[in-house]
Amino acid sequence: DGTMYSGHWVAGAAHGHGKLSKSDGSGYEGDWVEGRKHGSGAEWLVDDSEYRGEFADGQKHGKGCFKWQGGASYTGEFCEDALQGEGTFLWGDGRSYKGQWVQSRMHGNGRFQ
């Protein structure tokens, strides 16, 4: 299928630092634990969006930055792939929101401008 992994292996699974490249142009480079993204890394998707930050059990979890193709970006905290906690979202047109997030929605104290 064109998928290629280069890096450390333990007991037949990606473990340690490694790079995964897929035939569609997406991939991940960073830390792995038992075949899952775990620790610091960078993930790029087929639509040219990218995430750099922390992962846990294969999901965005901890602090990181996600950039979308259209120029929007979010820098802050993630929990199980969702925008969660404190973070700043910048839209491509210059608008911004800095504050609290719950399940990828603005929720709690924050400032929109």
TrEMBL record:
Xref: SMART domains: MORN (SM00698)
The keyword Disulfide bond is assigned to this record: no
Top-rank taxon, per record: Eukaryota
Alphabetical UniProt keywords: Repeat
Pfam families the UniProt entry points to: MORN
Gene3D superfamilies per UniProt: Histone H3 K4-specific methyltransferase SET7/9 N-terminal domain
Name this polypeptide is given: MORN repeat-containing protein 5
